[in-house]
Design brief:
It holds the Pfam family MFS_1. The chain is an all-alpha fold. The chain has 19 helices and no strands.
C-alpha cells in the first residue's frame, strides 16, 4: 500500500498546494471529503430500511417495481466511476467533487419530493451520477491537502468512511424512516449545502492533467444498458414468464450489449473497463470474486430488512437497529484482518470469510420463523454474516488494488467498485425474483437464503481456483 500511495501523490507535490498550507487545511478538507463520501455510501444502505414504506406510501407498488429505487442507483454509480475519475483528472478534482455534491444534493431534494415510484427512480439515477463524481474526485482533493508523510493514513481514513457508513446506514435509516421515508433523502440536503458553502474556501485545488482524454461515456452507456436489461429480465422473470419473448429478448440484448462493450473497451483510449488490468491475474481474480460476493451480500441485507418489516411486522426503527450489529462487525474486522492476510494469503482468508457468511445464512434457514425471536434467530446470523463480510470484502478490495501499478491505482479502485455495484444489482434482482413468488413467507424467504448460501460458496471456490491457477507463459 505504501508504494501505491506514494508514487501518484508524489507527482502532485510540485504543482499542488504549498506544503505548509496543505498541512493547515488537512483537517477541514478531510471533514468536507468525509461528508461527501459518507453521503454517497450511506445512500446505498439507508434506503434498504425505507424500501417497504416507499412502496406502501407511493401507490402500494410491488417489490419488483420498488427494487429499481436500489438498482438504478447501483447500476449508474458503478458504471460512471471510471469516467468520473477521468473527468477529475482532466478538469481538477475540486471542481468535479463540488459539482458532484451539487448534483447529489439537488437530486436528494427531488427524491424527497417525488410523487411516485418511477419519478423517484429517475431522481435516484441523477443521485448516482453525483455520487460517481464525488467518490473518485474526493481522494484527489484529500491527497492535495495532505502532507506527504500523512498520505497513507489519509487513504486509510478515506476507506474507513465507507465501512462506518455501512455500519450506521441501517440504524440511521430506521430512525429517519420513522419520521417518514422522505427524510431518508432530505438528510442529505443540509450536509450537501454545508460542503458547497465551505468547500470553495477550504478545499485545495488538486492539479489537473491537461493531457488526460475525455471520459468513456459510450462505454459507460453500454455497460449501464446491459446490466439494466439483465436486472429487468431477472426481476420480471416470474411475472412475464422465464421463456417469454420479453425475458428472452432482454437477455439476448444484454449479451449483445456486453459483447459491444468488450469490443469498445478494446479500442477506446480511456475505457470504462481497461482490459489490460484484467491481464493482471491477482486483480482479475479479486475483481471477479468481488462481483460474485456482492450478489449474496446485497441479497442478505435486503432480505433481513424485508423479513423484519414484512414477516415480523417490525417498525423501520426497530428493523434498522436489529440489522446494525452485522455491519458494525465489518470495520472492526477490516482493521484487524491485515495480519491474517499476510499469514494465510487473500484466497484463504476470503474462503474463510465466505464460509462464515454462509454459516450465518444457514443459521437463519434453521432458526428463523414467523414468530419473532431476535436473540436466538436473527442476531447470531447477523453477527456471523458481519464477520464474514469483514473478512471477505476488505481482503478482496486490498488484493485487487495492491496488484495494479501505482499509476493505475485510481482506475483499479474504480473498476473494483464497479464490479461490486454490478454484483449488488444482480443480488437484489435475484432476491426480488424469488420473493415475488406467491406462497408461505417462511418458505419463500428460505429459498432466497439457499440462493445466498450457494452464491457465497461459489465465490469461495472460484477465487481459490482462479487466484491459485498459475499464469500462462508470457
Amino acid at each position: 500500500m505504501s508504494e501505491l500511495a506514494s508514487e501518484p501523490v508524489a507527482q502532485q507535490d510540485s504543482v499542488g498546494e504549498p506544503p505548509g498550507r496543505r498541512a493547515r487545511s488537512f483537517g477541514a478538507a478531510f471533514l468536507l471529503v468525509a461528508a461527501g463520501v459518507a453521503m454517497s455510501n450511506l445512500d446505498q444502505f439507508i434506503v434498504n430500511v425505507a424500501l417497504p414504506q416507499i412502496g406502501d406510501r407511493l401507490g402500494h407498488e410491488s417489490l419488483s417495481s420498488v427494487s429499481w429505487v436500489l438498482n438504478a442507483y447501483a447500476v449508474l454509480f458503478g458504471a460512471l466511476l471510471v469516467p468520473a475519475g477521468n473527468l477529475a483528472d482532466r478538469f481538477g478534482a475540486r471542481g468535479v467533487y463540488l459539482g458532484g455534491i451539487a448534483g447529489f444534493t439537488v437530486a436528494s431534494l427531488a427524491c424527497a419530493l417525488a410523487p411516485n415510484v418511477w419519478l423517484l427512480v429517475v431522481f435516484r439515477a441523477v443521485q448516482a451520477v453525483g455520487a460517481a463524481a464525488m467518490v473518485p474526485a474526493s481522494l484527489g482533493v484529500l491527497l492535495a491537502a495532505t502532507p506527504p508523510e500523512k498520505r497513507l493514513t489519509a487513504i486509510r481514513g478515506w476507506t474507513a468512511i465507507s465501512g462506518a457508513a455501512a455500519a450506521l446506514g441501517p440504524a440511521l435509516g430506521g430512525v429517519l424512516t420513522e419520521a417518514g421515508w422522505r427524510w431518508v433523502f432530505l438528510i442529505n440536503v443540509p450536509i450537501g449545502l454545508a460542503v458547497l458553502v465551505a468547500g470553495p474556501a477550504l478545499l485545495p485545488k488538486a492539479p489537473a492533467r491537461t493531457g488526460t482524454r475525455l471520459p468513456d461515456l459510450p462505454g459507460a452507456a453500454l455497460v449501464t444498458a446491459a446490466i439494466g436489461l439483465l436486472s429487468l429480465a431477472v426481476v420480471k422473470g416470474s411475472d412475464w414468464g422465464w421463456t417469454s419473448a420479453a425475458v428472452l429478448g432482454s437477455l439476448a440484448a444484454c449479451v449483445v450489449l456486453l459483447a459491444l462493450f468488450v469490443a469498445w473497451c478494446s479500442r477506446a483510449v480511456t475505457p470504462v473497463l481497461p482490459l489490460s488490468l484484467l491481464r493482471i491475474r491477482p486483480f482479475a481474480a479479486a475483481s471477479l470474486a468481488n462481483l460474485l460476493f456482492a450478489v449474496p451480500f446485497a441479497a442478505m441485507l435486503l432480505s433481513s430488512v424485508l423479513w423484519a418489516e414484512t414477516v415480523w411486522h417490525w417498525s423501520a426503527m426497530r428493523t434498522g437497529l436489529a440489522v446494525a450489529p452485522g455491519p458494525l462487525m465489518v470495520p472492526l474486522l477490516a482493521a484487524k484482518g491485515g495480519p491474517l492476510v499476510t499469514r494465510f494469503g487473500p484466497a484463504r482468508v476470503t474462503a474463510a470469510g465466505c464460509v462464515v457468511f454462509a454459516a450465518g445464512i444457514g443459521w437463519w434457514i434453521a432458526t428463523m420463523r414467523a414468530t419473532a425471536d431476535y436473540p436466538a434467530a436473527m442476531l447470531p446470523g447477523m453477527l456471523l454474516t458481519g464477520i464474514g463480510v469483514g473478512l471477505t470484502l476488505p481482503t478482496l478490495i486490498g488484493a485487487a488494488v495492491t496488484s495494479v501499478p501505482p499509476d493505475r491505482f485510481a482506475t483499479g479502485s474504480a473498476v473494483v467498485s464497479m464490479a461490486r455495484q454490478v454484483g449488488a444489482v444482480l443480488g437484489v434482482a435475484g432476491l426480488v425474483a424469488i420473493l415475488a413468488r406467491a406462497g408461505d413467507p417462511e418458505h419463500v424467504f428460505r429459498q432466497g437464503w439457499w440462493l445466498i448460501v450457494a452464491t457465497t460458496l461459489v465465490t469461495a471456490v472460484v477465487y481459490l481456483v482462479v487466484a491459485r491457477r498459475p499464469a500462462a507463459a508470457g
